[in-house]
Specification:
This protein has about 375 residues and is mainly β. The chain contains one helix and 22 strands. It is elongated.
């Protein structure tokens, strides 16, 4: 009898202990980290915390740098909490820019500046960048190189070098692009330059609103041996509009006046030509996946006939990221001059130049 009584008591005690353990498991929650002021803090929807540096937030993507994981890009929808240790510049959808310590929590944004708190709905947030203008994280860029060497029945060397650098803040976007394409015959008895083309563009955009921006500085330097263009400089400004802009797609159009000066290698007429320009451009940049991007960049210039009548440049292709920060670029170029100017001792060049380039690029 005592044996059965002991078993009943032990069973009740075990059930009670199991129920208490289950209740404790149900109410357990991870402790909050100690928010050291040496770091910015990020909480993901999964409940994980990261400490590090807020780089920027644009187009619903947060760039965050961690000592352990380096730079990571998160979808903004996966961020549930964000705390900064330094002042941040916050741009809102209405174009207003504020500065202060940042706390994002429960779909709410708090800015602390001068000892006072300002509260905003998170839906009004457009972008975040550091208030320190000299931070290197505001810059990004890419360099690419493609080489093709032919030996045997055809002896030829072709190569393309390109680079681009961009700096973006809540107010502005500054960009420089450079490309150089060179091709020559390497036969010992008849070495000849086949292609020698370079293009440098630089522009500065000022964001007026979430849709409208002004390109307050727009410069292009172009040279092309085959088109008999020693150099062609174009300087102007334009009005821009974001047709579409989200975390995967950017589609901009620009329109504005410019001034152009062209110098040819050798012509029967005066070699120095100048012209007013109406410039039209569009840039379509789409992320097909996390590792594949598609780019379509088209620029058209309406100029006087002695400067080419219509000058256009098309760049389109795919960028494949095969290793972190390294990409394989498959790019198609068309350069067109509607009314090319011939040198004094030759027939006029063809209007169109085509190039299909395979190159390797590095993002930094």
């Amino acid at each position: 009898m005592n044996k059965y009584l002991l078993l009943i008591i032990a069973s009740i005690s075990f059930s009670s202990y199991g129920q208490q353990s289950l209740e404790q498991t149900d109410i357990w929650s991870p402790p909050l980290p100690v928010f050291s002021q040496q770091f910015d803090w990020l909480k993901l929807r999964s409940g994980e915390w990261l400490k590090g540096d807020i780089v920027s937030m644009y187009d619903d993507e947060l760039e965050f740098e961690s000592e352990e994981f380096n730079t990571i890009i998160f979808d903004w929808e996966n961020v549930t909490e964000l705390r900064s240790r330094f002042d941040q510049q916050i741009r809102f959808a209405n174009g207003e820019v504020k500065q202060g310590f940042l706390i994002v929590k429960d779909n709410h944004l708090v800015l602390i500046s001068g000892g006072t708190e300002q509260h905003y709905p998170l839906s009004e947030l457009l972008s975040i960048t550091s208030s320190s203008d000299d931070r290197k994280e505001l810059w990004d860029g890419k360099v690419s190189l493609g080489i093709d060497v032919n030996k045997g029945n055809v002896n030829q060397l072709d190569y393309l070098a390109s680079a681009k650098v961009q700096r973006r803040t809540p107010f502005t976007r500054f960009r420089i692009d450079f490309s150089y394409y060179y091709s020559k015959s390497t036969a010992d008895e008849n070495e000849q330059v086949i292609t020698d083309t370079s293009r440098l563009t630089s522009n500065l955009d000022w964001f007026y609103s979430s849709k409208v921006f002004f390109r307050v500085f727009d410069y292009e330097h172009f040279s092309d041996l085959q088109q008999n263009i020693k150099y062609r400089d174009t300087l102007g400004l334009s009005l821009g509009y974001h047709l579409m802009q989200n975390k995967r797609l950017q589609w901009d159009v620009t329109l504005g006046p410019s001034y152009q000066q062209t110098v040819y290698y050798n012509t029967t007429d005066e070699s120095d030509q100048s012209s007013g320009v109406v410039a039209l451009g569009t840039l379509f940049d789409y992320s097909i996946s996390s590792r594949i991007d598609y780019i379509f960049d088209y620029q058209l210039q309406f100029v006087e006939e002695n400067s080419g009548k219509r000058n256009s440049h098309l760049k389109t292709g795919l960028e494949f990221e095969f290793i972190d920060d390294f990409e394989l670029d498959f790019t198609f170029y068309i350069d067109r001059v509607a009314k090319p100017v011939a040198s004094a001792d030759s027939v006029p060049p063809e209007s169109n130049d085509y190039r299909l380039i395979l190159s390797i690029g590095y993002d930094f």
